[in-house]
Amino acid sequence: MLSRSAQGLYWMGRYLERAEHLCRLLRLQVETLVDRPIREIHFGWNRIYDSLGRRPPGGDLDVGASDDYTLADSYTLAGDLTFERTNSDSIRNCFAAGRENARQMRHCISAEMWTCLNLAWLRIRELDIEDIWKVSPESFYARTTQEIDTFIGVAEATMYRDEGWRFMRIGRFTERSQLLVALLLAQLAAVRAQDEAIGADWTSLLRACHAFDAYKRSYSVEVRPERVLDLLVTDPLLPSSLCRSLDTLASEVAAIGPSPGSHAGAEAERLVGRLCTVVRSEWPGRGERAALLAQVRAHCLKLHDLVNAAYVDYDVEDSIVR
Which of 185, 175, 187 shows the shortest CA–CA distance to 300? Predict the structure, then answer.
């Protein structure tokens, strides 16, 4: 397929995955404002911002602030992450970018996919933080997450299983892998910055990844940090685990076929295979986990570059069969 089409579908998958991920984190975060301690609220905000590599508006949060100031800070932070036009990673901007890529690639997706995505965009495009905060912000995040999940389900049911389908999934699972690794590293950094470990911090991480029920089935109700990390990284049956995302990436990259006139496609296939091996066979003891996650993050960034070099920015002259 045309490299422009491959690029559009790849980024459509990435942007919508990013928007859905942030909706889940923010829904969980605004729910903590009701009855959770101030320390836990600030922990959640710091984890979100650290995982995005972004500074909160106005600088670091004041952990010793009163309830009123904490609520005001949360209002500002939620607005920055949800509707801020200058924040490229805000939910609104990610959704707008995903919808624009879908608009340009309408010839590659089904009519039902476009209708589903466009209706969701028409609902949120004129909203601002005041509109959702005075009613029920968690309902907004839940509905937006549901709409993105519906779009993915419609794609599963209606999209033609050609190269476009595979590039969309490569984009989705590349983004999912990077976001999860960044979230786990932010969790570890936030825990190190605290004077004591709180079980609620790890329980909230499980809930954010839709993994709490799976954890209870595997380990009972006692939440231990090392077990949480093991589940989210290495469990092949958990849909949101790093292992499962990388396995899906490996199968899609292998199925996409050789790249035109470039060795980057083969390099990408080898790299994602190496990542799968690292997660399955080399997941280390407690002391080395942060270092390995940092290594996986670097490899995921390199994978994006290789996919781009293989199928989008390749040399046209080298792709001509002589």
Answer: 175
pLDDT digits (tens, 9 = 90+) for 36-95: 888 888 899 999 999 999 998 877 765 555 555 566 689 999 999 999 999 999 999 999
Please name the amino acid found at residue 302. K
Tell me if the pTM is above 0.85. Answer: yes
Structure tokens at 170: 């490569």
Tell me if residue 220 falls in helix, strand or coil. Answer: coil
Q: What is the pLDDT of residues 293-304, one digit of tens each?
A: 999 999 999 999
Q: Return the residue matching tokens 């965009």.
A: 121
Kindly state the tokens that stand for 215: 């954890």
**Given pLDDT bands bounded at 50, 70 and 90, which one contains residue 196?**
low
- Residue 48 corresponds to which tokens in the numbers above? 């979100």
**CA separation for the pair 63, 100 (Å, rounded):** 39
C-alpha span between 180 and 127 (Å, rounded):
28
Cβ atoms of 22 and 81 closer than 8 Å: yes
Q: In whole angstroms, give the CA distance from residue 152 to residue 167.
A: 14
Can you tell me the distance from the alpha carbon of 286 to that of 230, in angstroms, rounded to the nearest whole number?
A: 10
Neighbours of 283 (CB within 10 A): 17
The 3-state DSSP composition of the chain as helix, strand, coil percent (nearest 5) reads: 75, 0, 25
Q: For residue 139, what are the contacts with CB-CB under 8 A and spacing of at least 6?
A: 132
Contact 302/283 with Cβ under 8 angstroms?
Answer: no
Contacts of 290 (CB under 8 A, 6+ apart): 185, 188
